[in-house]
From TrEMBL:
Keywords per UniProt: Cell membrane, Membrane, Transmembrane, Transmembrane helix
Species per Swiss-Prot/TrEMBL record: Streptomyces violaceoruber
Sequence intervals crossing the membrane: 21-38, 58-82, 89-109, 115-139, 151-172, 178-198, 223-242, 254-275, 287-304, 310-335, 347-367, 373-393
Protein name, entry field: MFS transporter
Membrane topology: Multi-pass membrane protein
Matches recorded under InterPro entries: MFS, MFS_dom, MFS_Efflux_Transporters, MFS_trans_sf
GO CC annotation, single: plasma membrane
Length: 402
C-alpha cells in the first residue's frame, strides 16, 4: 500500500481533499460491505430458497452465478460509459439499482423473477465496487491514501466473511426473504450516507472503452488476476454449497450451520487484517501462505468434519485464510498498476466476480453430478492452482515504508 501512497502524492496539484473526507471513506466502506453482502446472501440460504422457489439446490446456486457474471461483465464497461459523470451521482445511482434488485429478490414469487432481480444486484455491485477504489484516495490527504484504500476494501473482506452468517441467522429466524429485505434497507442507508457525506467528485481522466484491457500487457497484473481467478473460483466452488456439506457431513441443523459460519466469519476478519499487513510487505509471500492453507483446509473438511468440534476448527482456519484473499489480491493489483487505479480495479472486480460466478457454477455441477462433498475437493484443487501461479509468476514489489 505504500506504493499506492507514493503514487498518490504526485497529485499535489489536484483539488484539496474535503475536511470530512474520512466520513466519505466510511460511507464507501459501508457501500462495499453492502454490495458484496447482497451478492453472497444466497450462500447461506440455498436450502430454504430452493424449497420455496421450487428448484433444487444446484439450480438455486445459479442466483449467485448470475449476479457474479453480470458484475464481471458490467464493471469494466461501466467505468468508460460513465465518462465525465460526477462520481457521487454515479455511485448513488448504482446503489439505487442495488436496492431495487434486493427488493425484487425479497418479493420474487418464482425463480424467473429472482433471476431478474439478481441481474440488477450484479449491475449495482460491479459499478459500486469498481468506483470505490479510485474515490478513496480523493477524499483524504495523500499521506493517508493507503489507509483509506485499505478501509474501503475492508468492507469487501468483512462482507465476505460476515455477510453470509448474518443472512443465514436472519433467514433461520425470520425466513429467507427477510435477509433480502434487510439488504435493501442497508442499501438505502448507504444511498443516504453517500449523498450526505461525499462531496461532488468530478470524473478524472476518462477511461476509453477497452483501455482497461490494455493494462493486462503487464505480466505482474496478469499474474495477479490469474491468482484471483484460481483462489476465488476454488473458494466459491466449495463455499456456495457449504451448508448442505455441513448438514450431510456433520449432521447439524440450520441454527448450528449459522454458528459455524459465524466462527468462519470472526476468523475471517482477523485474517483480513493479518493478510493486509503482510501483503503490504510482500504480496507474493502472503498469497503463498493463503493458498496453501486454503487448499489443505477445504480438502480436509469432508474427511474430518464429521465431528462438530473439528468442523468448527476447520471453518475457523478456512475463514482465517480466505479472509485475507481480497485485501492481498487487491494490494497486488494496485501495486502492479499504481497510476491506473480505477481501470485496474475494474479488471479486478471483473475477474473476482467472474470467478464467483464460475465457482458457483462448477460447484453446482459437481454437487449435482458427483455428490455434494465433491465440491470441497474441487475447491482444494483450484487453490493448488493459485499456489503454483503465485510461486511461478511475476509479482509487484511493495516500496519500503518512508
Amino acid at each position: 500500500m505504500t506504493q499506492v501512497q507514493e503514487s498518490s502524492a504526485g497529485r499535489a496539484a489536484g483539488p484539496t481533499p474535503p475536511r470530512n473526507g474520512w466520513w466519505g471513506v466510511a460511507a464507501l466502506a459501508l457501500g462495499t460491505f453492502t454490495v458484496v453482502t447482497s451478492e453472497m446472501l444466497p450462500v447461506g440460504l440455498l436450502t430454504p430458497m430452493g424449497r420455496s422457489l421450487g428448484v433444487p439446490e444446484g439450480v438455486a446456486g445459479l442466483t449467485l452465478t448470475i449476479t457474479g457474471l453480470v458484475a464481471a461483465l458490467s464493471a469494466p464497461v461501466l467505468i468508460p460509459l460513465l465518462g465525465r459523470t460526477d462520481r457521487r451521482t454515479a455511485l448513488c445511482a448504482l446503489v439505487a439499482v442495488l436496492v431495487v434488485g434486493n427488493l425484487g429478490a425479497a418479493w420474487a414469487p418464482g425463480f424467473g423473477t429472482m433471476v431478474a432481480a439478481r441481474v440488477l444486484v450484479g449491475v449495482g455491485m460491479g459499478g459500486v465496487w469498481a468506483l470505490a477504489a479510485g474515490l478513496a484516495v480523493r477524499l483524504v490527504p495523500a499521506r493517508s491514501a493507503g489507509a483509506a484504500t485499505s478501509l474501503v476494501f475492508s468492507g469487501v473482506a468483512v462482507a465476505s466473511v460476515l455477510g453470509v452468517p448474518a443472512g443465514t441467522y436472519l433467514g433461520a429466524f425470520a425466513g429467507w426473504r427477510a435477509a433480502f429485505w434487510a439488504a435493501a434497507g442497508l442499501g438505502a442507508a448507504v444511498l443516504v450516507a453517500a449523498a450526505l457525506l461525499l462531496p461532488r467528485l468530478p470524473a478524472e481522466t476518462p477511461v476509453p472503452l477497452g483501455g482497461a484491457l490494455r493494462l493486462t500487457r503487464d505480466p505482474r497484473l496478469r499474474t495477479g488476476l490469474v491468482v484471483v481467478a484460481f483462489l476465488v473460483t476454488g473458494h466459491f466452488a466449495a463455499y456456495t454449497y457449504v451448508r448442505p456439506v455441513l448438514e450431510d457431513v456433520s449432521g447439524v441443523g440450520a441454527g448450528a450451520v449459522g454458528t459455524l459460519l459465524l466462527v468462519y466469519g470472526v476468523a475471517g476478519v482477523a485474517g483480513n487484517f493479518l493478510a493486509g499487513a503482510g501483503a503490504a510487505r510482500s504480496p507474493r509471500r502472503t498469497l503463498l501462505v493463503i493458498a496453501t492453507v486454503l487448499a489443505a483446509t477445504v480438502a480436509a473438511l469432508p474427511w474430518l468434519g464429521g465431528s462438530v468440534a473439528l468442523a468448527a476448527v476447520l471453518m475457523a482456519v478456512w475463514g482465517l485464510s480466505y479472509g485475507g484473499v481480497s485485501v492481498s489480491t487487491q494490494t497486488w493489483v494496485l501495486l502492479a498498476a499504481p497510476d491506473a487505479r480505477e481501470a485496474a480495479s475494474s479488471l479486478f472486480v471483473g475477474v473476482f466476480n467472474g470467478a464467483i460466478a464460475l465457482g458457483a457454477l462448477v460447484g453446482g455441477l459437481a454437487a449435482d453430478g458427483i455428490g455434494v462433498t465433491a465440491v470441497m475437493w474441487v475447491g482444494g484443487a483450484l487453490a493448488v492452482g493459485a499456489l503454483v501461479t503465485t510461486a511461478a509468476g511475476r509479482a509487484p514489489v511493495a516500496a519500503p515504508a518512508p
